[in-house]
Amino acid sequence: MAENNSQGSNAQGATDAAGEQPQLQFGLQRIYVKDISFESPNAPQVFQEAFKPKVNVDLGTSSTKIGEDLFEVVVKITARVNHSETDNTCFLAEIEQAGLFRITGLEGERLDHTLGAFCPSMLFPYARECIDNLVNRGSFPPLMLAPVNFDAMYLQNKQRKEQADTQDGDTPLQ
């Protein structure tokens, strides 16, 4: 009887175009730390000065197909904090927060967007908490990273890639 349950009103049970496509399924299988590092190369001298931080944060994402419908997505955050007056490194904290996602029924642009924006949005709070914990254990004030708009980041990266592809394709033959 379950075979006759469809979204359309197909009383004969014949398959339509929507029935031939795989059903959309999304599942987060696991969240884990792939790589983590904290360095305070100028400790304990850095604690002798008033803490006047100059913060530089780099953020990146990547995704890899692991198996059929299984993808690993990684959010990498590198936070480098220097003393604003002396430029001495106070600390360097890095994390690669990863997740395994099972995704079926998405292809092309929709799959790329899910892997490049939606999945990283799910992982970022875990990475942010981990960075704060590392920094705190290093005896520094919490870093408190601001939320990230991964949709905007995904679109910017896509536009950059399209521009680079266009420039590479417009090279005249000599």
TrEMBL record:
Residues 1-13 have a biased composition (Polar residues). The keyword Magnesium does not apply. GO terms for cellular component: cytoplasm. The lineage of its organism: Bacteria, Pseudomonadati, Pseudomonadota, Gammaproteobacteria, Oceanospirillales. HAMAP family: SecB (MF_00821). Its main location: cytoplasm. One of the proteins required for the normal export of preproteins out of the cell cytoplasm. It is a molecular chaperone that binds to a subset of precursor proteins, maintaining them in a translocation-competent state. It also specifically binds to its receptor SecA. This is Protein-export protein SecB.
